[in-house]
Amino acid sequence: MAETGIGASVKRTEDKRFLTGAGRYTDDINRPGQAYAYFVRSPHAHATVNGINKDAAQAAPGVVAVLTGDDLAADGVGGIPCGFCPAPGPMNEPPRPALAQGKVRFVGDMVAVVIAETLAQAKDAAELVDVDYGTLPVAVSLEDAAQEGAPQLHDVAPGNVCFDWELGDAAATDEAFAKAHHVTKLDIVNNRKMPNAIEPRSSLGEYDAASDSYTLYTTSQNPHVTRLLMGAFVLQIPEHKLRIVSPDVGGGFGSKIPHYPEEAVMTWAAKKVGRPVKWTAERSESFLSDTHGRDHVTHAELALDESGKFLGLKVQTMANMGAYLSTFGPLVPTYLYATLLSGQYVLPAIHCTVKAMFTNTAPVDAERGAGRPEATFVVERLVENAARETGIDRAEIRRRNFIQPDAFPYQTPVALQYDSGNYEPLLDEALTLADFAGFEARREEAKSRGKRRGIGFSTYIEACGLAPSNVAGAIGARAGLYEAAQVRFHPTGSVTVFTGSHSHGQGHETAFAQIASDRLGVPIENVDVVHGDTDRVPFGMGTYGSRSVAVGGSAIVKACDKIIEKAKKIAAHSLEAAASDIEFAAGTFTVAGTDKSVAIGDVVFSAYVPHNYPLEELEPGLDEGAFYDPANFTYPAGCHICEVEVDEDTGVVEVVNLVAVDDFGTIINPMIVEGQVHGGLAHGIGQSLLESCVYDNQTGQLLTGSLLDYCIPRADDLPSFTVSTRETPCPHNPLGVKGCGEAGAIGSPAALINAVTDAIGVASLDMPATPEKVWRAMQAAD
Amino acid sequence: MPTISLTVNGKSVSGDVEARTLLVQFLREHLHLTGTHVGCDTSQCGACVVHVDGRSVKSCTLLAAQAEGAQVTTIEGLTTDGALHPMQEAFREHHGLQCGFCTPGMVLSVLDLVNNDPDPSEQAIREGLEGNLCRCTGYHNIVKAVQAGAKAMRG
């Protein structure tokens, strides 16, 4: 058992199909009679739609239908809903029709869909759809959208304001600043990112007239959430008539959380044209229409006393929502951001304001880390600069302010209660792995080669395991955030685990099988994990926010425990003992203190062939479901240290070492966890050095609209990483797990920019630290 | 509509295709070999890499008609009697894949790399993978997998 149980680096069961081309992604699926869809998207960032002439397109070869917003309205199709309103409100919430009705608000906003026999015919005909646009002035940047007299996107959002929100105690924070010995100030732009999962979004809708039911195959991280949102709010299809299948999904990184208009249009159109209809995004469409991430402009100040202890933190942030509210858009810059501003520190007073704006850009939602990277960047840039300004060693200033291990549970001034943590050993180990002691010698050596070498730290905290439903409700979520699982023993002893979590690369089929195998004492090869199909999995809230093992895994444990509880009664009957005397370990039920035992396989068989079975007390079968609602968030924490070399002549930054020491609580599969950290670090380096989504402020045109223009990290942009983990178990879930999917992206950007600013001797540098930006900063500083 | 004939994974195939049909479309839609993926529209991502006459080619950059008479190998053609190729096995062993979408193109690209350089350095692997994008792994484990796969292939 040990080599496949909890804590073992079990090789992934899903790999064989991925390695042999047998994966089944949405675009791999084709249905009989299928037609193909292509969307007509607005080339303008802001325009009225005065009329659409679709005659020529409809007459083109192979065209089945050309549908517009008027057709949606005529069928009573609702707008795409938002799933979160940050408490206490209010929030200006404009309607978002799936196809434009009267106005377009970003380049890529959808105006019509052309459905044809072939994709080529649909594309050809889309060229013939004649849209009469009346172009309008645009508000693209946050600053421009907030200007007096800026063009207005929505009637219901005066001044383009979505919400003006705050968290923390303003008066207490002012008091803290009044007592400050030193105040460190910083202006920060957190650059807009594009998730860029390598699999583009895809949706295939199908309607069965005989049963009046729909199936949508779609690239979603949370098919049940999509069913709930689309069924209840957009198309008014009850759950029992709507099946959502998200088979293998080729990466998500947040961009496949939201319910998208294309999904609703494919589902609706399938009935409208009486045939399955498929749409798959081209990468250019992904750039235009996938949700983007980050995009904050922030002013922040940190107050310190004479000894370098933190007294207070003030943060003012403007956050970009894009043109419409995506599913969790308003959650990201509020309760996933301001709540994390205490970091790993005792910070007695914090006040944060967030003004969220509408702009003529694609909607913004979660992107790996979602709010927490932005918070960590604010805190750790300030702490690093405070160390430099006060002359206190950068490790020492952190040590002086860490929350101590005996202080947990620790209540921060920004709503969260950290359940557990032990931060100093993370820093110590990172310092050792990074050979911090030898850094100055390396810096000197680099100078002789024309390189400026720098080192930067970042310690981070994240809130994962989203989320206790009552807390989620209180802060503005319009859904619960529990997870569901079903664990089914089959008569001859194999097991199927049905989970509401969704795997799009995280290896759940392996990690969840480890959990069930470990808990039930059956060989791992006898356990299969099913996810991603609302007709097979009872319910589920899906995968995001590093929640799957903490919440989804806990639901599996809970279902396993119900199985064992019932199986003990069956075992007691066959062993002629009292159920309270039965002990279970490693797949065997034993009467305590005796050698009388029965294997779980025999108990299972007897549950399904109940010839000798307590039928008067127990139902046959061993098949249990569970919903698990977490008691708190989980709080992974870590320390990342980055070392860079900057070329003096070119400004090119090379990451020469990146150390990540993370505390994820109990680890189910170390191999998978390391892989998750690597991937997160790549996202963090990408944001810090390479990636930036750029719109032209005058026209709203997307300038980084292809992989030629938007740089996601290539293999030779990245170093090999040094990663290590420590385990402080989470005290409130049965596995002790905390979550690991986002940590790399959360901790590393601040470490990297701290390293670059250390190397070139500047106080501030916005991401991405491109050679040009770094070179100019060096020239200005010298 | 032109008729094309070629050999795919050792089998002779032919089909009538529109002249503008790309090789990747022919593989996925006509032959239902969906292991070859499409991740972009500018030949950057490399998810569609196959071997044409033994060399790695982005099958989104080639018209199907240009592959007339060629020997094409896709990811489906790498296994022998169900057994993984040593490079596939190395990717599994070293966790060189997560979501799996870039994996087929990645494996076929590195096989070409290793055919030309049987013992590639880390730098050679990283540079050799410039045309294959992975958004999940950070490439760390891909590099390890390629080193191990190359070693296994050297025997």
Tell me what the structure shows:
The complex is a heterodimer of chains A (782) and B (155). By secondary structure, chain A is α+β, with helices and mostly antiparallel strands. Among the domains of chain A are: 183 residues, Aldehyde oxidase/xanthine dehydrogenase, molybdopterin binding domain (Aldehyde Oxidoreductase, domain 4); 147 residues, Aldehyde oxidase/xanthine dehydrogenase, molybdopterin binding domain (Aldehyde Oxidoreductase, domain 4, 2-Layer Sandwich). In chain A, 28% of the residues lie in helices and 23% in strands. In chain A, strand 26 and strand 27 form a beta hairpin. By secondary structure, chain B is α+β, with helices and mostly antiparallel strands. Chain B folds into two domains: 75 residues, Beta-grasp domain (Ubiquitin-like (UB roll)), CATH 3.10.20; 69 residues, Orthogonal Bundle (DNA polymerase, domain 1). Chain B has five helices and five strands. The longest helix of chain B is centred in the last third of the chain and has 15 residues. The termini of chain B are far apart. The relative contact order of chain B is 0.16. The chains are: A alpha+beta (782), B alpha+beta (155). Chains A and B meet through helix 1 and helix 18 of A and helix 2, helix 3, helix 4 and helix 5 of B.
Gyration radius of chain B, to the nearest Å?
15 Å
Unreliable spans of chain A: none
The total domain count of chain B is: 2
Question: Which term fits the overall shape of chain A?
Answer: globular
The Rg value of chain A, from CA coordinates, equals: 27 Å
Poorly predicted runs of chain B: none
The CATH top-level class label of the largest domain in chain B: Alpha Beta
Q: How many angstroms does the end-to-end distance of chain A come to? A: 62 Å
Order of strands across the main sheet of chain A: 3-5-1-12-9-10-11
CATH homology group of the largest domain in chain B: Beta-grasp domain
Beta percentage of chain B is 5-15%
| Biggest sheet overview of chain B | 5 strands, mixed
- As for the CATH topology of the largest domain in chain B, it is Ubiquitin-like (UB roll)
Give helix % range of chain A: 25-40%
CATH architecture group name of the domain at 426-460 and 635-782 in chain A? 2-Layer Sandwich
The largest β sheet of chain A comes out as: 7 strands, mixed
Helix content of chain B: 25-40%
